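quick one if you have a minute, typing this from the bus. theres a chain ive been looking at and ive put its sequence and its fold in token form underneath. please have a look and point out which stretches look like helix strand or loop to you. anything you notice is useful, everything is just below.

***
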Amino acid sequence: MPARTPASSRTAVSARSDLVADTALALLAERGMRGLTHRAVDETAGLPQGSTSNLARTRQALLELAVRRLADREAKVLALHEMPDPASGPHAMADALALAAHRALTDHKALTLARYELALEATRRPELRTFFDATGARFRDQLTALVTAMGSTDPDRHALSLIAWADGLMFSCVAGSFGARVPSLEEVRAGVRELLTGMLGA
């Protein structure tokens, strides 16, 4: 039977992996896809040369590491597991969804920008597209379950509409023509309420 890796070693590897992935996401937001290299990650993170290559030998592996970390961090930002009981009605749900979207636009703007860099790269890399879509399915499935519980007559379409609205808002304000003005929480809340009310007829 092979020897087990000590828990302390696994923790150290996990911490190093998170550091590399977080640095990769920061570089994507700051420098774009061309600025993301193994050497740049090592230098920016203050790691010995070759550390990133030891964790992710290829560029594809480094991108997958970044996507995996992105999904974990965005899950905390969006916090769908903390959404109110669907029985509380569309206004309570709109308030919670608006708060999540506003966090992505303000405190976590760099993370949102990194996501768009990875999404665009995935259009050119089929192998990354598959990985990117699989990690994003967690949010889509949770949102579909929420609108189903709220009485949606077409949950898949309504989840798509909500995601498309949120993505459009975030892209416009992070990288598009509304980048100079971030909407207030109240404005985001009004938009989500209008959308949910139209969907659910409440």
About this structure: The chain has a mean pLDDT of 89. Residues 27 and 36 are 6 Å apart (CA to CA). The chain is about 75% helix and 0% strand. The two ends are 61 Å apart (CA to CA).
